[in-house]
Amino acid sequence: MRQKIIVNRVCRQVGPARPLMDHAIRQDLASAGADADQVTTAVLERLITADDLRAQIAGAWAEAERDVASQEGAELLAIAPGEEILEAVFQRFAGRRYDKRRDGPAIAKAMNPPQEIKDLLTAFMSA
User: Fold this and answer.
1) Which of these, 64, 60, 19, 62, lies nearest to 42 by C-alpha position?
2) Do residues 104 and 82 lie in contact, with contact meaning Cβ atoms separated by under 8 Å?
3) pLDDT at residue number 88
4) Which of 22-31, 50-59, 80-89, 110-119 has the lowest mean pLDDT?
5) d(CA 26, CA 55)
6) What is the per-residue pLDDT for 55?
7) Helix pair angle (2-13, 50-69), 10° resolution
8) Where residue 18 falls among pLDDT bands split at 50, 70, 90?
9) Would you list the DSSP string of 51-72?
10) Is the pLDDT of residue 17 over 80?
11) How far is the C-alpha of 8 from the C-alpha of 42, rounded, in Å?
12) Which of 16, 39, 62, 98 is a plausible cystine mate for 90, CB 3.0–4.6 Å?
């Protein structure tokens, strides 16, 4: 489970430091009457280099490894991705894989929502 937590954490962080396209760039390009080459150039300038990507992954990996190694028991379960926990539970007790589309709604239907959610929904529906 520890390795899966590390991989999931690192993968969620991988990507360019800034978005490839945002509202301000779209506005600038549109205002300038940009053509396809100018749009391509604007996006390519924002791409991360292979070396930057390697450094980003190495740093995120080291940080995730340190954090996960320091967690045990309930603390470890608290930081584990929910789907990974459900996968392990279903394998152990149901002898099959967790199916998000089938099992997720069944679990939600069987649960009583916390009072905070009931209160929020009640307030939302009465507004």
Assistant:
1) 19
2) no
3) 83
4) 80-89
5) 29
6) 95
7) 140
8) confident
9) HHHHHHHHHHHHHHHHHHHT--
10) no
11) 30
12) 98
Neighbour-count burial for 92-105, b at 16+ CB within 10 Å, e otherwise: eeeeeebeeeeeee
Domain definitions of the chain by residue range: 2-80
Residues with Cβ within 8 Å of 57's Cβ and at least 6 positions away in sequence, in order, are: 10, 14
Number of residues in the chain: 127
Q: Is the pLDDT of residue 42 over 90?
A: yes
Helix segments in the chain, DSSP class H: 2-13, 23-31, 36-44, 50-69, 73-79, 82-89, 100-110, 115-126
Place of tokens 């190495």: 58
Distance CA 35, CA 105 (A): 47
| C-alpha torsion 103→105→110→114, nearest 10 | 120
CB 84 within 8 A of CB 5: yes
CA distance 8 to 2: 10
Res 84 pLDDT > 80: no
